[in-house]
Amino acid sequence: MATATLPTPTTTAAAQRTGTRTIKVEIKRQATPDAAARTEKFEIPYRPGMNITSVLGEIAAEPITADGRETTAIAYDANCLEEICGSCAMLINGKARMACSALVDKLREGDEPITLAPLSKFPVVRDLAVDRSVLFQNLKAVKAWVPIDGSYELGPAPRQFPQIQEQRYPLSNCISCTICMEVCPQFNDSTNFVGAATIAQVKLFNMDPSGAVLKEERLRALAGDGGVQECGMAQNCVAACPKQLPLIEAISDVSRDVVFQQVKDLFAR
Amino acid sequence: MATTPRIIVVGGGLAGLSSVIKIAEAGGKVDLFSIVPVKRSHSVCAQGGINAAKNLKGEGDDVLKHFDDTVYGGDFLANQTPIKNMTAMGPAIIDLLDRMGVPFNRTPEGLLDFRRFGGTLYHRTAFAGATTGQQLLYALDEQVRRHESEGKVTKYEGWEFLSAVLDDNGVCRGISAMDLRSMEVRTFPADAIILCTGGIGAIFGKSTNSVVCTGSAQAALYQQGAYYANGEFIQVHPTAIPGEDKLRLMSESARGEGGRVWVPRDKNDKRVAKSIPEGERWYFLEEWYPKYGNLVPRDVATRAIHKIVYEHGMGIDGQPMVYLDLTHIDRATLNRKLEGILEIYEKFVGDDPRDVPMKIFPGMHYTMGGLWVDFNQMTNIPGVFAAGEADYSIHGANRLGANSLLSCIYGGFVAGPNAMNYAKALPAQAGDGGHSAEFSRQTQLNQQLLSSTGSENPFKLWRELGDTMTRHATIIRYNAGLAEADAKIVELQSRYKNLNLSDKSQWANTSFAFARQLANMLELSRVVVQGAACRDESRGAHYKPDFPERNDAQFLKTTKVSYVDHAPRIEWEDVDISHIQPRPRNYAATA
Amino acid sequence: MAAAAPVAPPDLASSRGVKPLRAGQGHSFLWRRLHSLSGIVPIGAFLIEHIVSNFEALNGPLAYAQQVKFLNGLPLVRVLEWAFIFIPLLFHAGYGLFITFRGRANVNVYPWASNWMYLTQRVTGIIALAYIIQHVWRQRFSGVSLPEHPGAAFHKVQVELSNPWMLAIYVIAMIATCWHFAYGIWLFSVKWGITPGDRARKRFGYVCAAVGTGLCALGLAGMWAFVSPKYANAPADVMPEQPAGVVLPAPSVAPPNSTNPSQPGRVAPE
Ligand SMILES: Cc1cc2nc3c(=O)[nH]c(=O)nc-3n(C[C@H](O)[C@H](O)[C@H](O)COP(=O)(O)OP(=O)(O)OC[C@H]3O[C@@H](n4cnc5c(N)ncnc54)[C@H](O)[C@@H]3O)c2cc1C
Ligand code: HEM
Ligand code: HEM
Ligand code: SF4
Ligand code: F3S
Ligand code: FES
Q: A196, B183, B309, B322: which has the fewest C-beta neighbours closer than 10 Å?
């Protein structure tokens, strides 16, 4: 690119092909939910500051494998590109991570290829895109909402001390990325465990002064098959959560509340 | 007609969800369409907060002051009646959100806390940590999930709106949409539809917006006869972090705490920033504006940086970037005051801004323009409503910080009930209401695209579009540049006909979906460019050095663009100034 | 009015992958809590008792015999044994295996300490199971019947531990069981919400580690009694069958030609 002309926001991949440094990427691909998986290798011109979503964007603009074969753009989910929408979770070098906050420079050692694969615990839609709707169904199952009377004017909400807000806020930061579920050894199709995220949301809504009206229902729901009891305290969830939710705290607190609720129900019902 | 009106809401951001809530509450049935699961909509990105004059700080704030600030902030281009209604509804909206469980920050007494934002003298912005948009969206999402579990709402997540279904009288009878997995096109019946599809950042290539903010839905409606208004008004944020895939916001507090903006005096200087001696750095803001230095107002900073890069060609490494330097401030101070935002930089750039100067550049941030709507949020197509960033109302020539979240919820709250009322009075459709015609039009479009055998890659065309738009139609606009941009878009449109879809499969084909959006983006880009070309004045975010003054006599008018003969046609409409007389807008005097 | 009827969105997740929570349905919560509880009481309690009893062996074969005899003399001992040891253990072990096989350990990908502990809890459980099966069979249900001949206990165990392989198995099992129990107490406290707060959990972790180490030391010390030269070649039965009507207590003063001054009771082989 001539320096005399005005700089462009994005230097094209083609212009960079002449450059020396490249990034090797191996991507596990699958055309449909039932198709067999295969791996495709790519070599992409390196630019400083690249993240995984920009690598995937680069492939979309030039869908050619490392051995020069034409292929298709990779299917993957992404929206905000700033780790707040929760779309882009995938396995990067084998580990569940958000692609938009995964920087190439921090992923590579020497010339090792970066590997990308879809999350392993969710049905693959295509390539790196998976179906994570089970989390949203779980949120429905535990009634993760405040049942307000209506959206018309009813004056201010009950007062809430900052201490309560400070406990609720971190839980409300969950971006539904499902990484805590992916990394959990107990989250699989034989336990059908709900996973840490849903349990944390139960705590969040039980702590809300008005949301607490459904507390008992939520606790009973969580005692169902696949409920909080399935947690084996592997604590991968808390280590992997990109939003650092206090998940162990939540699981422990909710577990206790569920026990109390069950005991109460045993005698009262 | 129908006992239970059936409304389609397109878009699950704040605007879409708030209209869904109103309709479900009023007993309507809603089909909610969104490309991404609604909880992942762009609204999650908003950080700062939401405005409402609750006056909980004893400052004597009230809704009329909020009204005035908004009108003034928008440089008098916005119709005043909706703004007045919105600001009046503000306090009730905050209370409602609070009741829904939004973890707003609190005072020790347990009341809502408010912070101060740009463009006002009052503490008027309620906030939930640094993720207000996320928290608000979740609260609405949860309410909608509740209605969904009660059977009042059906979600079509992963479906893309393609067009409205219009009957012979041009009345909307539903939508056509495509399932982004099976790529199947279908039409869905509705008595009214509400479009809440957000901003158009993607036509500028990289922006602070999310990936789905392409404006494709608005552009499709525009091509079906809807007016697009004030398209030339977009807001650019002065300090964004240029990333390889997007621009991420860097809070202005970095400059507030003493950050200095500079570039190397020698444009070919390849040394690392820290090793460049003081004398060889050009602190251009401090030099050009000795009085305010790095703390010049947003638009001034934005224009100066733009000038350095695009007119002087002095961006770092030939890229559109300048340094925002905090390294002269000691670590402890930085950690105390700016830790949160420095972590964002560290996370996405990989450098520690305590050691290495940050690289920043102004970034396309917000779409003031949008679908033209009346005071009931209805477009000129009967039965098509719009709300949120996708409509043009409220913000005029410039948006005040933290006013957008409010306007989205307000817009939804107005559009929802009005759509219900409209639907109840709607006469039954004749024949099939245009469904089969629209269905075959859309399938044909798909067939055309799939059978195209050219050599152009849609993503590359998009990059060229973004490059052109960013260069000519963002911060500083010259008529010559705009003409060049328009010609470039026309060129891209002809190259688009020569598209090569590497992927012709009919399952979760992202390049196919993107190619469809691209066609719409190109049409919309022309609206922006031509609107800017026609507006020979400077107002709010629209700045032309050749016409540096606001010109109320000629341009206190809404730009209304319609699609005639495959090109934008511009009309003007008077602005509602029934409450506040326009006065000069000059923040520098009070800053 | 409709040209096309609305369709339900296709639902990939409902046909494959992890199923949603069965809100409020099923009984797995109860079983899981019983499993958790059974690990502490009665099994954990028994483990402590058993290790403390075995520690008596350090006081020599006779003391050990008395301990065994005392335990077997408890009222309704057979009922107690089944109700508080065998059945809970069978349940805990069985359900524990069920839990184990439904988990998908992934320390290869996420090699974090707590994840290792998760895996270790399963491995030590299986070790304990394998050990207990052979141990209970060989010590309780085969060979000399100790409830009837408590005096033979020391010798029986000594013979067992004289086999170095057996000794290794016992050492490993002792460590594994104590580990399993100690971490089990911690797990129990977290799952029942007894230790609220990260700091409390961390501190209680140290307490559990101390309990586990102490218990294990006690257990290994008890085993040392059987292999140490001190009591080498203990008599096959230190309390031969008494004539009917004769009731212990054994003499509290060492008999005249006792070889072990600290050991009251008979030591000379018959
Ligand atoms: C970084 C950043 C920070 C911000 N901070 C603030 C702030 O502090 N305060 C403030 O007031 N404002 C802020 N804003 C602005 C504010 O976030 C947005 O204006 C607002 O969220 C827009 O909401 P919306 O409901 O109109 O649309 P969006 O939230 O953008 O939602 C659009 C919806 O439409 C759907 N959609 C789009 N196209 C289609 C289609 N063709 N078919 C089907 N569905 C479609 C999408 O899936 C999505 O659900 C910020 C913006 C950015 C970028
Ligand atoms: C120091 C090592 C050990 C020694 C010397 C030892 C010895 C014995 C003996 C002698 C018996 C038979 C008692 C009787 O029949 O009354 C016994 C029974 C038993 N042991 Fe151990 N044991 C040891 C470790 C363990 C461990 C680690 C466990 C694991 C929990 C265990 C579990 C059992 C059980 C369940 C029984 C049957 C209990 C009963 O019948 O009352 N033992 N042990
Ligand atoms: C005999 C074979 C055994 C097996 C297969 C087994 C298996 C398990 C498993 C898999 C767990 C973890 C449960 C979870 O994390 O959800 C567990 C927990 C536990 N086990 Fe065992 N175990 C066995 C024996 C024992 C013994 C002998 C003891 C007591 C000394 C014991 C005490 C505990 C305790 C206290 C817990 C913690 C309970 C909880 O998880 O809440 N287990 N066991
Ligand atoms: S708890 Fe954390 S890891 Fe789990 S879904 Fe939420 S943000 Fe993701
Ligand atoms: S990883 Fe899984 S086992 Fe529990 S502690 Fe976290 S949910
Ligand atoms: S794209 Fe939103 S989290 Fe990565």
A: B183
Cβ-defined contact of A32 to B244 (cutoff 8 Å) = no
CA distance C109 to chain B (A): 23
* A137 in the same domain as A201: yes
Share of chain C above pLDDT 90, in %: 81
B121, two tokens: 């003298």
- Note whether residue A7 is domain-resident: no
In degrees, rounded to 5, the angle at the alpha carbon of residue A152 between the alpha carbons of residues B31 and B139 is 60
Measured CA to CA in angstroms, residue A177 lies from A1, A194, A243, C136, C268 at distances of 39, 14, 10, 49, 74
Residue A50 lies in a domain: yes
Bond prior to B242 in cis (omega within 30° of 0): no
Taking an 8 Å cut-off on Cβ atoms, the answer to whether B106 and A161 are in contact is: yes
Query: B111, B107, B121, B102: which is closest to B50 by C-alpha?
Result: B102
Residue of C21, C22, C187, C199 to mutate when probing chain A, most A C-beta within 10 A: C21
Range of the domain at A53: 13-130
**What is the number of structural domains in chain A?**
2
Structure tokens at A174: 């969950």
pLDDT of residue B340: 78
Number of domain units in chain C: 1
The pLDDT tens digits of the residues spanning B19-50 come to: 999 999 999 999 999 999 999 999 999 988 99
Looking at domain B6-233+368-424, its CATH class is alpha beta
Q: Whose CA is nearest to atom 9 of ligand 1?
A: B402
As given in the structure block, the two tokens for residue C195 are 């230790």
- Say yes or no: A121 and A143 in one domain: no
- ipTM, two decimals: 0.92
**A43: pLDDT strictly greater than 80:** yes
Which of B173, B281, B298, B516 is labelled catalytic?
B298
Question: The dihedral of CA C89, C90, C95, C96: what is its sign?
Answer: positive
Query: Which residue range(s) make up the domain with C154?
Result: 26-231
- Give the max Cα distance, chain C: 112
Count of residues in chain A: 269
**pLDDT confidence bin for A111, thresholds 50/70/90:** confident
Give tens-digit pLDDT for A50-63.
999 999 999 999 99
Which CATH class name applies to B434-554? mainly alpha
Q: Are A205 and A218 in contact (CB under 8 A)?
A: yes
Q: Please indicate, yes or no, whether residues A142 and A207 belong to a single structural domain of this protein.
A: yes
Which one-letter DSSP state was computed for residue A35?
Answer: S
Residues C64-91: tens digit of each pLDDT: 999 999 999 999 999 999 999 999 999 9
Q: Does domain B237-364 have CATH number 3.60.40.10?
A: no
Give the largest Cα separation in chain B, rounded: 77
Torsion B376-B380-B381-B384 (CA) sign:
negative
DSSP characters over B338-393: HHHHHHHHHHHH-S-TTTS-EEEEEEEEEE--EE---TTSB-SSTTEEE-GGGB-T
Buried b (16+ CB within 10 A) or exposed e, C103-130: bebbbebbebebbebbbbbbebbebbbe
Q: pLDDT tens, A176-200?
A: 999 999 999 999 999 999 999 999 9
- Separation in Å, CA B8 to CA B159, B194, B349: 12, 6, 41
For residue A89, the ligand 6 atom closest to its alpha carbon is 4
Q: Which residue of B has its CA nearest to C3?
A: B432
For residues A126 and A43, membership in a common domain is answered with yes
Distance from C-alpha of C20 to C-alpha of A181, rounded to nearest angstrom = 12
Low-confidence ranges of chain B (pLDDT < 70): 1-2, 587-591
Q: Are B72 and B585 in contact (CB under 8 A)?
A: yes
pTM: predicted TM-score of the whole model, two decimal places: 0.93
Question: Can you give the pLDDT at residue A15?
Answer: 41
pLDDT of B591: 37
* Contact assessment for residue C181 and residue C40, using Cβ atoms and an 8 Å cutoff: no
